[in-house]
Amino acid sequence: MDRPLAGPDARTSGRHGRHSRLFGIIATAIATLVAIVLIPTSTAAGSAAPSPMTAQQWHTSMARLATPAKGCYTASYPALTWQATGCTTAPAKPFVPKGADSAAGPHLPAVALAGAGANPSSGAAPYVVGNGIDFSAGVSGVLNGATGSFASVSGVTSETGGGVANSYSLQLNSAPFSSPVCAGHPGCQGWEQFIFSNPGSGPSSAFIQFWILNYAATCPAGWWTYSVHCYKNGSAVTVPSQPIANLSGLSLSGNVTSALDTVVMSTGGGTLSASTADSTLSLSAAWNAVEFMIGGNGGGSMATFNPGSTLTVRTVTHNGTTAAPTCLTQGYTGETNNLNLVGTPGYGVGASPSIQSVQSNILTSPPSCAAAHGTGDTHLETFGGTYYDFQAEGAFTLARSSAMTVQNNQVSGAPLGWPGAAVNSGVATQMGADKVAVCAARGLVVNGAPTSLGSGGTITLASGDRIVRNGSQYVVTDPQGDSMTATVNPGYVDVFVGLGSYPQPVTGLLANAPGTNDKLRTSTGAVLSIPVDFKTLYSVYGDSWRVPDSQSLVAVCGDKTQAADPAAPFWADQLPKDVQAKALEICQKDGVRDATLLEACTLDVGVLGEVGATEFIGEPAPVNVAFSEDTQDGRTAVGANTR
């Protein structure tokens, strides 16, 4: 049913002949037409009849089927048609833009732990979804539609909004965009929301809310005023109230043309409702990013889920391509929920390109469109998932993008008892004009000045960059969602780097060669296939990313920096046998099974103590490995026979 139906050849050979013969020709043609319409072109005569369209296929098709005209409509499975129905009035409340009630606007605060296995009782502030904190999907060109749904719902037993059970909204929100209605109003932008409003009592409705942001003048006739903004609703279509138990079966779509914009609400039970309004803001000419979220039912309110709730949110984009959308660490609405944005999204390509992300009040790892890290002594994992050991000494560029640079300083592990290993003595970032370093010995240094920041404290810099401390962890973020997380341990620092958008150009030790996840690139542009040998890793690749003293962001830590490559690799089987055996046992008890991670965990625990296993708990297996014990000279990684 997804393929175009075939039709008969419309050409004829003439009009002459007797009426009886003409009747026979017409009858034959009609029979042929019926047969062709009922049998797809790829189905041979005599084969099994095509399977009926599933409810999911029907929902997908209907969500993209244009309504006949402006108005309100319903549809019921399996009919592929819209039926006109009466419209109703949308709720007279604003579903507000992000930052509408906060002069500071949204920022990403810190989470409990940069790695897996976070402890929610640690007192860290979560990344609460809404008011600008979310993952959105961006596209090249413009969107003609988008659909939001929930790929999975786990642990959800209740939800309240303002003390009312099952009070929430689903929203597909555009990014602010240039609109003709803003002519003559500098700084003005259009903003459009496709909304399902579920008040918890009484009927629900689906409608479009239009905004003129920063209009800063008397609103046009027919528009309400909200601060310096203007808003109005399109007509609404009534939808049966949906308790939160139905969440996994709900989806919300928005479609736009130059003439009409349409919201389509699916309740998952074989029914859909659609409301179509004039293209008030000309969104179809400028829609390039979309956020799908569940939040409070208007007015900047919160949807509160029971403890233990986790949602996997899926946003499908329609822009005429099969490419995965770009990830943007930002949202657009002022409504919120009490779940935390966690981890990194997954991406889908093909007929339904998508971005899929997790929201949960069970903390795991901080959100970023792509994440990379350097931990222990020293294990690096790139944004593309390439893992390798890197035990050179000196200052290096870990990551460099258009908005952020992150560097580290690696020193000998001799003070910890293992001169063959290297650890981070400090890490630093430059975001715009701000330079922030976190040092194992000196603590926090902001723009060259040692700075005191207590646990739970926040520093907001003039640029909008923020520094948040939770215990031994410091998180530095910029308004675009880029982040550096530094965790100070006795004698060394672990670092996690997050990108606010992805894919984007990024280089350094934590980046793969552009467009790959199985190659590395030197600072001079040479592309290296993996795995790499010892000499290439250090003398070619590593040395290319060394930072001269004059360009070092980490020099403020005051550590003695010695530029040196190791004489030989240092593996876990070079630990004393009793140390190795005990470390291996600890890592295995913590559930580390992948051969590469098990070798790295064993080495870290042997060198750094039991705390060295923390970053490996729940860590997924690497996408690939560039340099580790199990890539060199046919060696077998420690503990590999236990897999």
UniProtKB/TrEMBL annotation:
InterPro entries (alphabetical): VWF_type-D
Domain VWFD: 370-558
Keywords: Membrane, Transmembrane, Transmembrane helix
Bilayer-spanning residue ranges: 21-39
PROSITE patterns in alphabetical order: VWFD
Protein name: VWFD domain-containing protein
Biological source species: Actinacidiphila cocklensis
